[in-house]
Amino acid sequence: MTTQLLRVIDKCTEILDQGGAVDAVYLDFAKAFNTVPHMRWMTKLEIYGVSSKLLEWIRQFLIGRKQRVGNVVWYPFLKQDIELLEGVQHRANRMVPGLAKFPYEERLRKMDLPSLAYRRTRS
């Protein structure tokens, strides 16, 4: 799931780099799905007027899903995932106003961020 999110972010930043526009809605239902009984949640969505098509989509998503609470930690170890994550960070920090003209390492220093390579060594 996280890899897919990174791919979407990578594509969005690529479009923005080329002068395009991106409209997106990102919904993180993890806490809602994992902490509230599913039937109570679905009933509330119906009461609030959520469309039947969206309700059905959510019902299908919940089928067989286990409720749990926990933290997700993503530590990429595949080269393709590391390169994807680094590419996203390179492009994303270039979008910070006033930093685009600086080299990557300088942008990180100005934002007080460690490089991804450094963070991997600290794991």
Mean pLDDT: 76
The radius of gyration computed from the alpha-carbon positions, rounded to a whole number of angstroms, is 19 Å
- Which overall shape is indicated by the principal axes computed on the Cα atoms? elongated
Main β-sheet: number of strands, strand sense, barrel status?
none
Distance between the termini: 21 Å
Give the helix level as a range of percent: 55-70%
Task: Work out the helix count.
Answer: 7
Poorly predicted regions are 69-73
Structural class: mainly alpha
Short descriptors:
123 residues; mainly alpha; 7 helices
Could you walk me through the main structural features you see in this protein, from its secondary elements to its overall organization?
The protein is mainly α and 123 residues long. It contains seven helices and no strands. The chain has helices spanning 2-17, 30-35, 38-47, 52-62, 79-94, 104-110, 116-122. It starts with a helix and ends with a helix.
Layout of strands and helices, then pairs:
Blueprint: H1 2-17, H2 30-35, H3 38-47, H4 52-62, H5 79-94, H6 104-110, H7 116-122
Summarize the structure.
The chain is mostly helical and 123 residues long. The chain has seven helices and no strands. It is elongated, with a radius of gyration of 19 Å.
